[in-house]
Amino acid sequence: MIIYVNGRLVSAGEYVLSPLDHGFLYGHGLFETMRAYNGRIFRLEDHLQRLETAAVLLNWPELPGRLELSDAINSVLKHNDLCNASVRLTLSRGIGAPRPDAASCGQLTVAVFALPLPPSLPAEGWRVATVKLRRNLSSPLVRIKSANYLDNILAKAEAKRLGAHEALMLNTDGMVAEGSMSNIFLVKSGRIVTPDDDSGILLGITRQIVIELARNAGIPVDIRQVKPEELAGADEIFLTSSIMEVIPVAALDGRPIGDGLAPGLLTLKIAQLYREFA
Ligand code: PDD
Q1: Same-domain status, 226 and 104
Q2: Looking at the structure, do residues 187 and 227 belong to the same domain, yes or no?
Q3: Which ipTM was obtained for this model?
């Protein structure tokens, strides 16, 4: 596998990350996971914008330019002969002193790799389980794709222990937030509902596209605080992420959703609209 690191294409086995990199020492990093369709990164500008916003929050020095990052991604795809792939761009604060002081760090570490897409999903939909871990509303970190994903890792592991594919994370106010790697939507009486931007969620790019596609198709979308009971009483539930696109949910906490015949009609419609658009 050929990867990109700090301006060079290298073989993945050859590259050694410094143990003094603050990404490794403290999880001081950011990432984007993107999907390539026919060799083109879907919504690259949106991913880079989200990355830039997060870098400002973390007070980072200037990132490499968009053109440089996009060239890096394209060369990785080309050198690995991948057209439809999952592409991971990771930046860390770089090498510094072994203390959590970013001022001791030099230049950012920038890495890109691409992988074939994961196997397709069970057509009948995913099982989701509500986990104990909450999205912390007082932390700005829930809004960014920080390289410290320990909360998400714990949430996913808890969901797996409960026999589910994905976790449902509530926020510290007890309202619905998101999955460990996905945003969440419900369908009730022909309307689509999704937690708003202040619910302790990552502002997913797929989420935004789904909102726009649904509205353009005349399907009403409510973006607001969502109570967990609403999910339990939903006609349909689906999740979204760049890699998995639109994922129907078959069961929540062991109970089937709607008539138990996931995917529901609106979920199928949204998944189809997304497919045509991407
Ligand atoms: N995850 N919420 C969380 C916590 C996520 O990690 C992700 C994406 C999303 C969906 O965001 P988007 O639609 O922009 O992909 C929501 C990526 C795919 C990952 O885990 O690598």
Answers
A1: no
A2: yes
A3: 0.97
